[in-house]
Amino acid sequence: xxxxxDFGAGAVVIAFLTGGIxxxxxxxxxxxxxxxxxxxxxxxxxxDLVKKGEELYGEARAxxxxxxxxxxxxxxxxxxxxxxxxxxxxxRAKKA
Length: 96
Description:
The protein is built from two helices and no strands. By secondary structure, the chain is mostly helical. The protein has one domain.
């Protein structure tokens, strides 16, 4: 970005959800309906948001696990390459 700040996808999602929550609460508070209906609507929307948050958490956790596994695999591959190089260097040193 031009100002040197880089906002990740997580920050964007959190900002979006926060804005949605604030907007939803304000809409409910100023809506012309009974208190009982408003409380039920708030409860229902809260339950929906909790479910969505749980889904997003599960997806993020799965993606993190996937990246971690790929990283471990990458490190193991490089470790094997380095070990093979060390062994080859030892063999050359013995022959010299």
